[in-house]
Amino acid sequence: MTAAKNFKIKGLDRIRFGVEKLEDALRFADDWGLIQIESDHDNSHLFVTIDNSQVEIFQADPSNPACTPIGSPSGMCEMVWGVEDQASLDAIATELGRDREVIIDADGTVHSQDDLGIRIAFRIAQRSYVPFPDTQFNSPSQPKRVNSRAPRYKKAQPYEISHLAIGVDHAGEAVKFYLERLGFLVSDRYADRGVFIRCSAEGNHHHLFFMNGKAPGTRFNHLAFKVRDIHEVIFGGQHIDSQGWTTFAGPGRHRVSSACFWYFLSPFGGAWEYAADEDIVTEDWESTDFAAEAHIFTEWTFGLEKSDGTLRGPISQSKAQALED
Ligand SMILES: [Fe+2]
Questions:
Q1: Average pLDDT for residues 167-178, to the nearest whole number?
Q2: In the prediction, which pLDDT does 3 show?
Q3: What are the E-state strand segments in 144-258?
Q4: Measured in angstroms, how far is the CA atom of residue 232 from the centroid of ligand 1?
Q5: Distance CA 297, CA 212 (A)
Q6: What is the pLDDT of residue 309?
Q7: How much distance in Å is there from the Cα of 196 to the middle of ligand 1?
Q8: Of 82, 117, 245, 325, whose CB has the highest number of CB atoms within 10 Å?
Q9: Could you tell me which residue, 203 or 320, shows the higher pLDDT?
């Protein structure tokens, strides 16, 4: 199989999380700005973004494989991809059925596993575009927002799930299944230590990011939600901070994908990220290998460094050092 295969995968439709501390997780999701709706499964809680990207939350249960997070007590149990039509769904089931178990449940969702044993599923996409006013910015001599104040947000209301990041032992190996079997494309990479891949030629810079983790094994690292603009990143992050949650990194701007971000430690076994103004790409995007750049996590940030100490020292110093090299 090659990248020419087109299963018309549109993006992440639902992430299923099993957690140790259910009440904390539900409070976090609410503070994050997700909207809780009625769940379609027993004993689980379903939250949505504006475009109906979904997060399902339930009590982790090590006795039930479907409710057992991969690699940690709290974390992701399954990623569900949205596809455009039934023909694509059927084609994916056939492709995966060549060498692994495929289960099609009552509502037609196709369940299987990738080569690392991560649970993956596919269904007709339930996300849909919801129009909203485009944020306008005033540049010198080129004003776009006239006689109107800039947007303010009490808290964020994420528009969509943007991407998922997973820590693994060998990122370059982990992506092969998605590239070779599902037709994903590489957008950028840090050699084979971190690989950003997307499920469709046009659209998001990446939907999945596999990185070599600090600790051995496979585990959820973070989930990113796209918000409308940088104002919503900041207002949303301030609200989360005010509710007692802890910043993991940010606010700042990524070097890769250009997104403005703010990450928080979450009860989901990893971080959740607000992101705005990410690169949008087409088949003409030229992927870059950033392996030679030492400080690639951020283009800039305020003061720091990830709260777990994996990136040390003020970014301004790191950046200056990098520029001197
Ligand atoms: Fe991210």
A1: 97
A2: 43
A3: 160-168, 185-190, 194-198, 203-204, 208-212, 219-226, 247-253
A4: 16
A5: 14
A6: 47
A7: 10
A8: 82
A9: 203
Position 82 in a domain: yes
With a cut of 80, say whether residue 312 has pLDDT above it.
Answer: no
**Spacing, Cα 179 to ligand 1 middle (Å):** 19
- Please give the mean pLDDT across all residues of the chain: 91
- For residue 164, report the distance from its CA to the centre of ligand 1, in Å: 7
In a domain, 148, yes or no: no
From ligand 1's centre to the CA of 227, what distance in Å?
13
**Distance from the CA of 162 to the center of ligand 1, in angstroms?**
8
Q: Which residue has the tokens 């289960």?
A: 103
Rounded distance from Cα 42 to ligand 1 centre (Å): 30
Cα 165 to middle of ligand 1, angstroms: 6
| Residue span of the structural domain in which 282 resides | 9-128+157-324
Per residue in 62-103, pLDDT tens? 999 999 999 999 999 999 999 999 999 999 999 999 999 999
Q: What pLDDT sits at residue 299?
A: 77
Task: Tell me, in angstroms, the distance from the centre of ligand 1 to residue 103's CA.
Answer: 30
In 5-67, beta strands by DSSP E? 9-19, 35-37, 44-48, 54-59
The dihedral built from the CA positions of residue 259, 51, 112 and 266, taken in this order, carries a sign that is positive
In a domain, 136, yes or no: no
CB 267 within 8 A of CB 25: yes
Decide if 146 is inside a domain.
Answer: no
Rounded to the nearest 10 degrees, the angle between the axes of helix 22-32 and helix 230-242 is 140
CATH number, residue 48: 3.10.180.10
> How far away, in angstroms, is 141 Cα from ligand 1 center?
34
Number of domains in the chain: 1
Which contiguous run of DSSP H or E holds residue 90? Answer: helix 86-97
pLDDT reading at 150 higher than 50: yes
Find the 262 Cα to ligand 1 centroid distance in Å. Answer: 9
pLDDT digits (tens, 9 = 90+) for 97-139: 999 999 999 999 999 999 999 999 999 999 999 999 999 999 9
